[in-house]
Amino acid sequence: VRRRAAIAIAAALALVACAGAWFALQDSRDSGGSTTYASDGRLLRDVRVPRQLPNLVVLVLDTLRADAVEPGGASRVDTATPFLGSLAARGVHFVQASSNSPWTMPAAASLLTGLHPSRHGAFDSRQAPALPAAVTTVAELLAHAYGYDTAALVDTAWLGGPDALGQGFSRYEDGFWLEDSAARLGSWAQAREPGRPFFLYVHTLEPHDPYGRENRVLPDLPAPRPGGGRWSGEPWEAARTYLLDGPRRRHLMLYDGPRFFDAVLEYTTYGYARDPRPELVAELRSAYREGVRWADAGVERFVAALEGLGALENTLLVVTSDHGEAFGEHGILGHGRFLHDEILRVPLVMVGPEPFRGGKIVSSSVGLADVLPTFLDLAGLAPLDDVDGRSFLRVVDGDEYGWPVLAEELRHPLNAFEANDVLVASARSEGWKYVLTYDLAAQTFREELYDLLLDPAETTNLADAERAPPLDPDFCRAVARVRLNVEEAATARAGSGRAVGRPGPTRPEPCGFH
Ligand SMILES: [Zn+2]
After folding, report:
1. Which segments of 379-449 does DSSP mark as H helices, in order?
2. What spacing in Å lies between the alpha carbon of 107 and ligand 1's midpoint?
3. Cα separation of 60 and 454, whole Å?
4. 212 CA distance to ligand 1 centroid (A)?
5. Cα(139)–Cα(136) distance, rounded to whole angstroms?
6. I need a surface site. Which of 1, 80, 193, 460 has the fewest CB within 10 A?
7. Over the range 31-66, which residues count as b (16 or more CB within 10 Å of their CB) and which as e?
8. pLDDT per residue over 196-255, tens digit each?
């Protein structure tokens, strides 16, 4: 076995060396050609641009909290990411980046399309294609208009497979581990089409639950026995098993899925607030921290493999996450369904051509949907038509401020077991957070407003305060959009054109809507 492993490693290294030479050859070529735009900036005709287009690598570490990459972060996992810290010191670290959704599929779809979830409509991991035909992904634009070689290497069923979000990727592979970066990236490089810039999208499951490295190695399961695998424990025990014990979780999901998953959902969503267990949270944080440390070491392998291939030359490298993770901060565990900052904030580190170098720290608010519009801007390419995301290229050097980022959880179904009982959306700037929730059963709205500078843990709801805090017009426009989106979703759920009433009135009327 040792000999076979040694041969496999030698083969992988040889592959990397060959591909590296091959990359160096390709990168020395110039594409040549021209691009034509309409007066409004819309792309009319392209073909090639008279210079070398930059490459793009996006690495999404599923469920990585923003504070995992920050010194002194609240999750106390900051020292678990020395490599990401060193990467941030080479590039630009956006410390106020946030997702447009609290869970994987809509968040990844926002990243890939530049659209908010209510517009791209990707909510169901079982549906393929996940996006409406009219939606164009950045992968499609880059592949079809600019000749990019596009590939996605992923490791999560929550993205729904190649037919769900795979449009525009000429290569889509599942089962990608950061540990296998050298071999997998080597074979990707060899399969690449010569003479073309590339877009590589990598979405790994580290450090998603079940936390910790050992949970990724799953044993073969025995055949189900009659009555075997029936869940009869307490909800907190179900949550513990789900989050910490990969093999047993897999067994229970296969053989007693609904009953087990209902217990998990009950505790992570509502049960924890009634029955908080600090010892469980300490155990979860510790295991998560181990997973984060493992992910960080994996990113180091990933970047080393790209460097070995020469694939970071003229390349923008983006490292981010699709959402964070809750450890009881607002009475919940995990992610999805809630828009608190421990779930919405994501790390965002970008390294590449100017201005993405020099260890800058940007504290303006930007969102996942803005990332690829920023790449198009950097590359000098025409933007996607009518998208929500905006380029933050000029935010990096402080020539522009960031903007409020919208996040939404307005439609489900998440999976076969889960049904949402609320509709919720938020607007988040670096200073403020507004959240509007519609309770489907009670048919009532609830507003929340937090001062993120004074109250980053979102503990004091200023929507109930006596005096309205001063909010700038930009933020109020985002609040208006949130209200409209939630009202539309609530009306759609009420069915047969029945209009659902406006939220409020709220006490401080911060934006003067009432
Ligand atoms: Zn995710």
Report:
1. 393-396
2. 8
3. 30
4. 16
5. 8
6. 1
7. beeebeeeeeeebeebeebeeebbbbbbbbbbbbbb
8. 999 999 999 889 999 987 766 666 666 655 555 678 889 999 999 999 988 888 888 887
Residue 21 has pLDDT above 90, yes or no: no
Report the separation in Å between the CA atom of 103 and the middle of ligand 1, taken as the mean of its atom positions. Answer: 5
* Contact indicator for 365, 429 with CB cutoff of 8 Å: yes
Question: Which residues, listed in sequence order, are joined to residue 348 by a DSSP beta bridge?
Answer: 94, 320
Task: Please tell me the distance between residue 481's alpha carbon and the centre of ligand 1 in angstroms.
Answer: 25
> Could you give phi then psi for residue 164, rounded to 5 degrees?
-85, -65
Q: Read off the pTM.
A: 0.86
Structure tokens at 103: 């869970």
Q: What number is the average pLDDT over the span 242-271? A: 86
Distance 462 CA to ligand 1 centre (A): 30
The one-letter code for the residue type at 248 is: R
Cβ contact 294:208 at 8 Å: no
Cα(205) to centroid(ligand 1), Å: 8
**Which residues make Cβ contacts (< 8 Å) with residue 430, sequence separation at least 6?**
96, 363, 364, 365, 402, 452, 453
CB atoms within 10 A of CB 123: 22
| The two structure tokens encoding residue 95 | 């410390």
CA of 322 to the centre of ligand 1 (A): 5
